[in-house]
Write a structure and sequence with these properties.
With 441 residues, the chain is of the alpha+beta class. The chain folds into three domains: 237 residues, Beta-Lactamase; 89 residues, Winged helix-like DNA-binding domain superfamily/Winged helix DNA-binding domain (Arc Repressor Mutant, subunit A, Orthogonal Bundle); 99 residues. 45% of the residues lie in helices and 12% in strands. Strands 2-1-5-4-3 form a five-stranded antiparallel beta sheet, sandwiched between helices. It has a four-stranded mixed beta sheet with strand order 8-7-6-11. Helix 4 packs antiparallel against helix 8, helix 12 runs parallel beside helix 14 and helix 16 packs antiparallel against helix 17. It is globular and about 70 Å long. The N terminus and C terminus are likely disordered.
Length: 441
Amino acid sequence: MDRSPPAPPAPEAQLTDTRYESWVALEAGADPVERTGELRRAHEAFTSAGRVVRPVRPLVAASWRRSARARVNPDGTAGVELGEDELAGYREGHPLARAMPVIRELMDSYAKDGEHLVAVCDAQGRLLWVEGHPATRRKAGAMNFVPGARWAESAVGTNAPGTALAEDRPVQVFSAEHFRRPVHPWTCAAAPLHDPRTGRLLGAVDITGGDGLAHPHSLAFVQAVARAAESELALLAPPPTGDTIELSALGRDEALLVAAGRKVRLSRRHSELLVLLARHPEGLTGDQVLVDLYEDESVTPVTVRAELSRLRRLLGPDLLSSRPYRLALPVDTDFDMVARRLGSGAVAAAMGAYAGPLLPTSQAPAIVRIRARLAAQLRAALIERGDPGLLADWARSPWGEEDVSVWRALVAALPECRRGAALARLRELDGELGAGFAGST
């Protein structure tokens, strides 16, 4: 029987007791056995009636609500999305492969001595490496905590690597804080991993085991490992040559610029200007910038010149030229990378590089057009490819959770035995749109 919870109501009350505001699962002196019992009862209250009761921490309550909205079945098991052959190639080319020697060096003996597991996942929550104590690996295999399985929060509910990705910060999850009941015997701590140059989320590193991990030391340890891994990636990255500019603008309102060894977080208006200039290496006149950037027809060319002058002071005269306005060096952007990969047919690689819509809250006319065109091209490629893992990545993202066409394609791509949650979400969306669902089975 499907025991998926109903979409929960608005929170009845905020859990303000500071004892439950920590990112650590158990405060000093807490009895793990007693807390487990309390959490199991709280978990039952939530999955049966949508009520959050003590001693659920705010972090976990928020994650449970997201899990319920994603229609995660509390009794389900993680799906394996990457087979051995596909996993090997994907893993070899993933940026985190270069950090694995450091992660292993720091965590190997800790994991084996404590009968724990070390796992590293990508930004979509797919486990790429799961290593550690052999007996613990066999036990974890029963719940598909294995390489190639998807442990994103939107797929399996609250868990340390998935929730660390969702929150973009280190987290610890203890016992029945996990959303799925088969994971209740486990405790895990995870920290996100970022590209040290662009800040892009690459994945997470996790340590998983028994109640012994419900200690502040395990969370601090996995944080330290994440920092060491990011430092290793920074050391291994090719040094900046000074003859290119890197611009990251997907999934963020304030773009990140890397130029001449400097990393600069741009204002929203300067982010829009840099995207426009990157798209037009031949340069733009002031009038062109005015039309592309401003909806308000009352804005004057003087305003545009003032914004560009401020941008030149920020970047330096060697980077921003005028008459026409143009960047003096080639620009490598994350949105062009996605477009290039789509153009070559590398749909999975394009989806891996797509961190979200381009400057998502910008209303500048040209940005709106570029953003919509790139998103439309990517989603069309995903639908045509029909890969359930890639479709799930889009459908369960913040920008794709109401995309009826992708949810319909996902239902069609999934085996009938795994369609339940996706079909329920599709019917819900069709009901909201008043369209009805004619293609159910």
